[in-house]
Amino acid sequence: MPSDAPEHPRAGTVYLEDGTRFDGVGLGASGRRVGEVVFTTGMVGYPEALTDPSFRGQILAFTYPLLGNYGVPKRGARDADGLPRLESDGLQVRGVIVRGTTKPSHWAMDRSLDGWLRDEGVPGVAGVDTRRLTQHLRSHGVLRGVIDVAEGGRPTPADELARAIRRAPAYPEEDLVAEVAPDKPTVLRRNGGPLLAFLDCGTKSSILRALLDRGASVLRLPPGHEVPQRWHGRRVAGLVVSNGPGDPAALTATIEELGRPANRELPTLGICLGHQLLALARGGRTFKLKYGHRGQNKTVCFADGRAVIVSENHGYAVEPGSLDGTGLEAWATNPDDGTLEGLRDDRGRLLALQGHPEGHPGPQEAGFVFDEFVRKARRRA
After folding, report:
1. Whether 358 is catalytic
2. What gap in Å lies between CA 201 and CA 269, rounded to an integer?
3. % the chain with pLDDT above 70
């Protein structure tokens, strides 16, 4: 139960599609949401995780047992380029599951985690045995579920929650990318260095910031938008494919666009979902992981022997055996389960990483991926 629990607590319930139930105390907004229940192992960075568009359509459980200690940054905060200081303009998750919360204390905080969830209409449940929930998901795989925060003190009956899950669309059936992607092209830092076309499937602001910090200009495009060779007289010098939510195989228009011969001539960088889409565009295949990789301080081992630490948030991966004949080769792997973490092509034009090189979980050595890509783009500009 949260240490700053209200005087009249609301009932909070997490109910999984296999009938497993967790009862606790309501946090944030009252209401009911259905989504894919996933967990993240990050100890800090909950504002960034909750605003990451890759979590769209999901109910997020935090394995770290105490959240909220440093509150939430000032609402609407933006940097000099107009990008949100957090990963997007608002909460992206459908629900939040925590073991406990505490009263926040931080000089830059604007409000509490509970107040933030309440203001943006997102329900949460505290007092859940998140260790047991995580072990259940690791054993059975990702499950759909419903998070329910009732105004009264009485938990909602199981049959009512089960009906809510059955009536909701399945995670792969939802067009989640359309909910988080831009609907028209925009340019960031028009007078900067090499102009990069950026297929935005629901990007984290920190990816854009990493490119701008390296002196590039960014042409931000909706997913599936034709990648131009020139934009208002400027030559497009490189192509970036962003992270985002959902099943990569469902983004057929984006996959088709990435497969165009003209785009294969561009220096290209794919991150997370972008990594998967580039593999699909070359004829590779993807599959759904049992419970995904979500957290900080994840190890990635490169083919040259280097090991780096990155943040990760993905539920799908590329089948290594499907790369035969695609012109792509494995660049990095995950030492925990052997899944493919990086791709490159035999022409030296394509780099793709499943993890997030823009993430700063402490170490920042994965930033070399951006450095190498921007150098390639500068040579073409």
Report:
1. yes
2. 14
3. 98
Q: Which helix (H) or strand (E) holds 333?
A: strand 328-333
The full set of domain ranges for the chain reads 11-171, 177-380
Give the CATH number of domain 11-171; options: 2.40.30.10, 3.90.1170.50, 3.40.50.970, 3.50.30.20.
3.50.30.20
How do 58-62 and 31-40 pair as beta strands?
Answer: parallel
Predicted confidence band of residue 192 (pLDDT cuts 50, 70, 90): confident
**What pLDDT digit, counting tens, does each position of 166-187 carry?**
999 999 999 999 999 999 999 9
The residue length of the chain stands at 381
314 is catalytic: no
Helix pair 368-380, 205-213: axis angle to 10 deg: 60
Q: How many CB atoms lie within 10 A of CB 173?
A: 11
Residue 376 tokens read as 């390639």
Give yes or no: 48 in active site: no
From 3.40.50.880, 3.30.420.40, 3.30.70.260, 3.40.50.2300, which CATH number describes the 177-380 domain? 3.40.50.880
Say which of 225, 272, 293, 312 is annotated catalytic: 272
1 pLDDT above the threshold of 90: no
Instruction: Select which of 225, 275, 314, 356 is catalytic.
Output: 356
The single residue of 36, 312, 358, 360 carrying the catalytic annotation is 358
Is the predicted pLDDT of residue 6 greater than 90, yes or no? Answer: no
Concatenated DSSP letters for 20-61?
-EEEEEEEES-EEEEEEEEEE--SS-HHHHHT-GGGTTEEEE
